[in-house]
Amino acid sequence: MHIKPDRSKGPAFETINQIGFLPVAGLSLPNGIEVSMITAGSQDVTKIDWMFPAGAVQAGKPLLASTVGNLLMEGTTSRTSQEISGMLDFYGAYLSTQTFYHNTVVTLICLTKELPDMLPLVEDIIKNPAFDKRETDIYINKRRQEYILDSEKVKTIAARRFPEVVFGANHPYGKTLKLSHFDELTRDELFEFHKNAYTPLGCRIIVSGQPGNEIGDLLVKYFGSSQWLPGTVNLNGVGEIEPLGQKVHLIEKEGALQSALRIGRPLFNNNHPDFIPLQIVNTILGGYFGSRLMTSVREEKGLTYGIGSNIVAYKNGGMWVIGSEVMGEMRQAAVGAIIDEMVRLTKEPVPENELEVVKNYMLGELMRNFDGPFSTSDIFRSLWEYDLDFTFYAKMVEEITKIDQQRIMQLSEKYLNPDDFYVVVAGK
Predict the structure, then answer these.
(1) I need a surface site. Which of 47, 81, 182, 235 has the fewest CB within 10 A?
(2) Residue 376 burial (10 A CB sphere; 0-12, 13-18, 19+)
């Protein structure tokens, strides 16, 4: 008998009280590399991340770390870039690199049955890049042209300038790429940085999905050898920030129709006790489509098509940044409207219904972020960099659930003082 559903009633509402984290197992390779395993999912597909201390901080100069990372797949001492691409296409595999401030991550996604063929390829790419002169020149020239084109965009100008203002021009988080860096980079630097950074020292491997029973032996075979010698890369190298004394920075762009805004301040990372509750304050202010900045600056005042606020965490610090683009003649009004919303959070309690919406939104996003082994492994990888584990997100659920109006006002008074914020405007 077919029962017709009652579509006049929505699904039952359930409050999220906890997240069911996938279990993480560990093993050590003979050369000391730690491997974390998140075994879950219904498909025989595997994702493996290799994390190396090969970021911009270790490189010490812009462009070097990302160039080494991106050129890994452009040829080895035994394979051309065409052969590498052809092999990936043949097996339907995905291989990429991402370079951050403190590490570069090499990621492989493939069918589990293809791991015996894919892991020797990844080993070759990681250990034996050729940094072929032709491939290197093509890459550098392409990056140079992209840099020149992006330099015409006001949002790029503001985005490049803001970290320099907040952290200082000599701080690793404040160093920005200049056009001159493209002419200064040498192939010898690429080889030297790779020799020291892409080694077992500081390497971490994270496996997720359904890797099969042979994964341990495969990792030992291709990445566990004691003959793969550790390098001498500096794992830290971050000093005190030196923000610029001037709080407002205007960068004129001839012919620009719009102005890009960046308003923010230096902050801490997610090891600080106020980091989690500040995420709730940030969400209210500008962290989702129904935020106060979107409602006020976009919907009510019509000053922009989009605006957002974000708290960015780094291994040795962080920043709070609000970003938008407005018509040139509206930039002063937009800055004023943003500051008004910051001040309002320090003066007026957040209505209970608004706070409830934000809480439910944040809890829903947390659940979505832990949907499946691959996304869970991405979160685990980020936590590992800060010496944290999944209890961080268990605490986040608790903080979101219990935070009240008074606590939000206290945090806002402490961290949303307009005098602590820097303003960068690029454009008309």
Answers:
(1) 235
(2) buried
